[in-house]
User: Fold this.
Amino acid sequence: MKTPLQSITTDFHKQLWNPFVHAVKTYSLIEPGDKIAVCVSGGKDSMLLALLMQQLARTNAHTFSLRFLLMDPGYTDEHRALLIENAKNLGIPLEIFRTNVLSVVDKQEKHPCFLCARMRRGHLYAEAQKLGCNKIALGHHFNDVIETTLMGMLYGGQLQGMRPKRTSDNYPEMELIRPLYCVKERDILAWTEKNALTFLTCGCAFTATREADSRRKRTKDLIAALEAESPGTEKRIFNSIHTVQLDSLVRYKQGGVWHEV
Assistant:
């Protein structure tokens, strides 16, 4: 029987490995000499990312090094045990450090998910810098990209995408990369089910009780409905942030400065 890692380059070569490599090459996400902190949350996306990065390091002609960081934001003993066991079974050498992110976020009534993501990223940048890394890799995938794009329009009143790589505002010597940029969530779920894997979803009480009412969930459902009605909708949303027509806009913001068109 194939292991989860072996299935990535065999059964799911077209669905997972190819789009992963395509993103790395197309957006120049990895360069020789990079020291990359792969940020693992315990969920399906980051665990898959860790395996893909390991495999790339084994096969890539360029030299780069990896550290696998897991920030424990205050998980329960049950959640912590699950992610540690998964990492052990998948052969991911985790380096765990603890914070109090969840205890802070649980007290936040408005936009707790935004605060949680921001705090997590800040801790990860700081820890990666301590380890001498120049990049952090996050597990955002294709569907995260198109959902964020549409949410920006519907709820934020702005045209804003999610870039495959960007320099940190607070850590200018650090770069964030998203190697799963072209990998679709449905294929990650299929790989998870094929290998009978159970991953951590989210340790936050807010998400557990209000996920069905979240803006992201509604956006995800809307995209699914549009895709069923008009196949190719997902790809068109993704392509839209690669083909922006500045001549058709009134103004745009770049480098913190507004420009009139």
Summary: The longest strand covers residues 65-72.
